[in-house]
Amino acid sequence: MNSALRVTDLSLDIGGAKILDGISLSVLNNETLGIIGPNGAGKTSLFNLLSAIRKPTRGQIFIGEHDVTDMAPHERANAGIARTFQTSSVFVNLTCLENVRIAAQASNGQSMNLTKNAYKFTEVVAQAHDCLEKVGLASYAMQRAGALSHGDKRRLEIAIVLASNSQIVLLDEPMAGMSVENVPELVEIIRSLATVHKKTVLIVEHHMEVILGLADRIAVLNYGELLVCDTPQNVINNPIVQSAYIGEAL
């Protein structure tokens, strides 16, 4: 299978400190790759490089066969990468429909002027409604996003990702702050990104049971280095990983 995303020798130095050092890995089309590691391992820094928030000190980033290393953030997004963050990043003063509609407009190359009447954009409004329905927020379309619960904001972020039509999705700790009872539903929504919507998903998550249930493979980072990238079972049984991160309990 062809790689949807590939990085070679990806490194990041900040103030003389090595944050990431020589990361090389490939993620296949429609694959879900879990990324784990202790605090400070470089997980979010890797996402910052992939989404062009930071530029690498060295190394290359490819989407398919295209070198996107030098692209600006908006160019990287247009090339097919969408991202969520550890903290909710929705427009809290806009409705759920408006949040998703903006992403749909951008993906269709239309104006993102927020002062225009949403109902003039029949096609993108229909697309936005469809994305809200897919994450279980159809009845919240006209509700202000800031009034949503934390769990519903996470679902709204997934709807925005769907509306963007991006092929590659970066999810940075989507379960952070979620109540225990809301986790299973969000897990299934994330699973559908790959199984139903045929996205390539990279997910950083501290909840090991979530990663083990979702990921086709798991990449383990430690002190900015890639220790291993393998199937969940092989990662669990890897003595180097157990020593560095997971521990004997697993």
UniProtKB/TrEMBL annotation:
GO cellular component annotations, sorted alphabetically?
plasma membrane
Q: Which PANTHER family match?
A: ABC TRANSPORTER ATP-BINDING PROTEIN, CONSERVED COMPONENT OF ABC TRANSPORTER FOR NATURAL AMINO ACIDS-RELATED
Listed name of the protein: Unannotated protein
Keyword Transport attached: yes
Q: Name one GO molecular function term.
A: ATP binding
Q: Kindly indicate whether the keyword ATP-binding belongs to this entry.
A: yes
The alphabetized UniProt keywords are: ATP-binding, Nucleotide-binding, Transport
Query: ABC transporter domain: which residues?
Result: 5-248
